[in-house]
Amino acid sequence: MTDEAMLSAERQIRQQLDASGQAPLVLFAGGEGIHHGIVGIVAGRLADQWSRPAFVWSLVDGEARSSGRSAAGFDLVRMLDASRDLLIRGGGHAMAAGFSAEPSHLGALMSRFNEVAQSQLDAGEAGAWAALEGRMEIDAQVPLSALTRQTVGWIERLAPFGEGNPAPTFVSNGVGVRQAKTVGADGAHLRLDLDGWSAIGWRLGGAAAAVGSQVDIVWRLRRGLRGRPELEIVDLAV
Description:
The protein has helices at 2-14, 39-50, 76-81, 106-122, 126-133, 149-156, and strands at 27-30, 54-60, 63-69, 89-92, 96-101, 140-141, 170-183, 189-194, 197-201, 214-223, 229-237. The chain is an alpha+beta fold.
């Protein structure tokens, strides 16, 4: 369910790109097909992958109910406070917040939130600039052969992940590509079998990962369909 919602959200965001291929400072996605119980999970993944705040909403009893996650430096509460006239209710803190609104107000809210984010950038707030730069911190370089059920358990004991406790990011070199196919709208994403591990690369559909080749990957551990552990590919090089 979460993977399907993520693909739907990605399709919506791709439709929001400007002529130069840039996404809005604040991402909005949602709809009837996204269950309210997972909107926070999807928002967190979008914020992490696009290095900017993301709000994901679902329709509940005629209201658009949204959960938002931020990238460092952007204050979600400032966005809510600047938009009280458009909200039914809203609250949270700088890094995680939510709101309810009339569905007809979503377009105006997206514009208002982006204005607040732009004001932070215009003010030269360093945290916001760092978020957009998407700086990547690597925790360890490990051979993929070292990833076992036991090490998966060790990594997951470090959870919950989020602001102040980001998910560990690893580099593995010389990883064998057993299967590779593009998925999602316009083949935007890459689904892989890497030395026996299922992997997903969001927005990596254009990567030249040929079956039988070896690649270097930057990855994080995640739970995919039916709760199975898999790799989330952050970057890939042939």
